[in-house]
Amino acid sequence: MQWVDLPPVWLVGFIVLAWLQSAFVPLGLALTFPTAPFGFALIGTGLALMLAAVWQMYRHHTTIVPRWEPHALVTGGVFMLSRNPIYLGDALVLAGFALYWSAIPSLLLVPVFMWLVSWRFIEGEEDKLRKAFPKAFHEYEKETRRWL
Question: Within 10 A of 144 (CB to CB), how many other CB atoms are there?
Fold first, then answer.
């Protein structure tokens, strides 16, 4: 059951909640303001951010799996923007789907998702990085925010 407790599974679950809200409690906001283009833009931005981060981690021969041991500290590229660009991309994708479906109340799911991911994954990942790369991670942590 460990595969269930992975960030992509949580993301899909939150996206499903946003879809359910849009399908069963529609607010008709799309009729007064077209939110779909903004949603599409956020989804694309989030996916691009995730792909860039995965590519950088691959190039540095380190893992993207949250509970595995890191082999390198990646601090360049999109990791200069955020210490967690994949999770930031996840949050953008979730917000994008909520906007795409005009599920405005579901935007409240974004900070809940961010809190959950911080609690379930980021804190543990950052502890591993602190232990594996104490001085380098301390400097990186001072220079780069967790989210933005």
Answer: 15
Res 31: pLDDT:
57
Among positive and negative, which fits the CA dihedral 100, 42, 89, 45? Answer: positive
Which residues are CB-neighbours of 13 under 8 A, at least 6 positions away?
A: none
Helix H or strand E segment including 34: none
Spatial neighbors of 86 by CB under 8 A, at least 6 apart, are 7, 49, 50, 53, 54, 64
Residue 83 phi, psi dihedral angles, 5° rounding: -70, -15
Q: Output the CA–CA distances (angstroms, integers) from residue 49 to 10, 21, 54, 86, 147, in the order listed.
A: 18, 26, 9, 7, 12
Question: What is the DSSP annotation of 111-147?
Answer: HHHHHHHIIIIIHHHHHHHHHHSHHHHHHHHHHS-S-
Q: Residues 17-59: pLDDT tens digits?
A: 999 999 998 776 555 678 899 999 999 999 999 999 999 999 9
